[in-house]
Amino acid sequence: MSKSILVTGGTKGIGKAIVLEFAAKGFDIFTCSRNEEELEALKNELESNFSAIKVHVKKADLSVKEETKAFAAFVKKIAVPDVLVNNTGIFIPGSLHSELEENFEKTMHTNLFSAYYLTRAFTEDFMNRKNGHIFTIGSIAGLTAYANGGSYAVSKWAMLGFTKCLRQEMIPHGVKVTSVLPGATYTASWEGVDLPENRFIDVADVAASVWSAYNLSPRSVVEEIVIRPQLGDI
């Protein structure tokens, strides 16, 4: 039976790189996005390049609780994935004392609440099966406070705490949990910035790190993956 991976926000950036990495290894793919055209383009790309796998996509806005749960239900009707990657996220620059309250709410719902609800949808199945691997894509903004990080930084600190707690809960059940904490990565979030590409992490390196962590024996787990640009933080 084919193995499968669920990656939220899989049409671009880190999410797409992880999808491509695992598709190349023969994993069936589940993913979602708010953009249906991008989902169909990804599905066509994957099916053209990796004819042996199955690709399941669904339009969903994971900042909305009901849509997150509907996406989980869509996946569970087909299979319980072997790997869950909570990747969906947004970045809205701002300061906690002056940003719009709506920005805080949208960021927390997208970056944190989506991971909470989606993870809860699959943990019982993972626990009963006594295997599975849950990755959360955080950020070094969840390790080091910085000005203008605002709600984004708060959400990533919270995501790290969520992942640490989940790791402890899953230990007795054979389910692995890993935090991935990249620094500045070359994605659409940095469009328009006047910096050379070599100042950023390559999304393929993040994906390769996830694949490597997944491939350890059942006796070991990588709890945290911290990746920074070789030339230092931006």
From TrEMBL:
InterPro entries: NAD(P)-bd_dom_sf, Sc_DH/Rdtase_CS, SDR_fam. Keywords: Oxidoreductase. GO terms for molecular function: oxidoreductase activity. PROSITE patterns: ADH_SHORT. Pfam families: adh_short (PF00106). PANTHER family: ALCOHOL DEHYDROGENASE. Belongs to the short-chain dehydrogenases/reductases (SDR) family. This is Short-chain dehydrogenase/reductase SDR.
